[in-house]
Design a protein that fits this description.
With 117 residues, the protein is mostly beta strands. It contains one helix and five strands. The chain has one domain (1-117). Helix content is 5%, strand content 23%. A five-stranded antiparallel β-sheet has the order 4-3-2-1-5, with no helix packed on it. β2 (42-52) and β3 form a beta hairpin. The longest helix is centred in the first third of the chain and has 6 residues, at 2-7. InterPro entries: SH3_Tf2-1.
């Protein structure tokens, strides 16, 4: 415990900061088109509109996420460091109430037929 406490850093976000929001990965569901270890764990960035107590923040979410409550605990957020060279294109997606995402394939690009002896 003493080792863990010495390595832990306290996060503090102020109004106007941008944060990434944690998306819980679920086994067997494809998240944002990538399987396995490379699933994105965070979506965003979203701006903090208001600070509610020490541990909760009110975020400005997209209209596509209107069914998700917009107050989040500090453990669900990660600091966003802006980089003007890196631009992320947001695609339309449906996020469930339990912060999971399920993606359906649009078309099959390539297939291989297995020929046995």
């Amino acid at each position: 415990m003493s080792y863990a406490d010495s390595k832990r850093r306290n996060l503090e976000f102020q109004v106007g900061h941008h944060v990434l929001l944690r998306v819980t990965p679920t086994k067997g569901i494809i998240h944002f088109g990538v399987r396995g270890k490379l699933n994105p764990r965070f979506i965003g960035p979203y701006e903090i509109l208001e600070r509610i107590g020490e541990m909760a923040h009110w975020l400005a979410l997209l209209p596509a996420l209107s069914h998700v409550h917009n107050v989040f605990h500090i453990s669900m957020m990660k600091k966003f460091i802006t980089n003007p060279d890196h631009v992320i294109q947001l695609s339309d997606f449906e996020l469930n109430n339990d912060m999971t995402y399920e993606e359906c394939p649009l078309k099959i690009v390539d297939f291989k037929e297995q020929v046995l002896r």
